[in-house]
Amino acid sequence: MGIINRVEHGLAKAVHGAFARAFKSEVQPVEIASAIRRAMDDRAALLGHGRAMVPNLYTIELSATDYDRLGDYEDELSDDLVAAAQEHADSQGYQPGGPLEVILIEGEGLETGVFRVRPATAKRPGSDTPPPPRSAPPAPRPTPSGTLVDEQPPSRPARVNPSARPWLDISGDRYPLLGSLTTLGRDESADIVLDDPGVSRRHSEIRVTTDGPHLVTSIRDLNSTNGTFVNGERITSVRLEDGDRLTLGRTSATFRAGRR
Hints:
Layout: H1 3-15, H2 20-23, H3 29-42, E1 45-48, E2 51-54, E3 57-62, H4 64-70, H5 74-92, E4 94-96, E5 101-106, E6 115-120, E7 141-142, E8 148-149, E9 167-170, E10 173-176, E11 181-185, E12 192-193, E13 204-211, E14 214-221, E15 228-230, E16 233-235, E17 237-239, E18 245-248, E19 251-256
InterPro entries: Cell_Proc_Reg/RNA_Proc (IPR050923), FHA_dom (IPR000253), FhaA_N (IPR022128), FhaA_N_sf (IPR042287), SMAD_FHA_dom_sf (IPR008984)
Keywords: Phosphoprotein
Protein name: FHA domain containing protein
């Protein structure tokens, strides 16, 4: 049995098992996995040599009810959905635009049982930077029976809540600005890759900083050929406000400040 079938089988069993109270007649994980595969197929762009580029970031917008019920299982569901998406990409010869990631957020105007899939191509912030060295965990403690028991459970990295972060709306696709610095450009090394001949290889960068409890977002042009425009005005560097319209080459985007 392939990993997709195993994941779907496991998730289907979960619906009738420990997660039954959470899922009921609301969104089913198997439905999300199928929708991600369809979105991947629909967005596949031919690269040549039998390979096709597909989005790597899949933001799942859920109703308030579904998000509240699935929130407790977000990490486990995300891992399973990424595994299913990776298997589908491998089986079809797809090349994701970066590390695959599935993010669950609360959407607006959605009824219970209805969800949206927002595919995007965006590198994970800091993916090119090696992680800092980790300190050695405490030595396991032997029990009288000889079984080794860890003194502390393994810790998981804190997850960023994407709905609280600013994001870009580009042609209806949602691009969360998860890192403190996000580069936009035509080059594959950019965090958000724009397939636009009017966009420079490294066109502009968006910086997110904190001012007390508030997030402050600004955009800076990186000496691009055709310039960076905010609300029709060519800029060098400017602070962004919710609803600002960005133009890079022929690409337009709307800045959203995220949940306040």
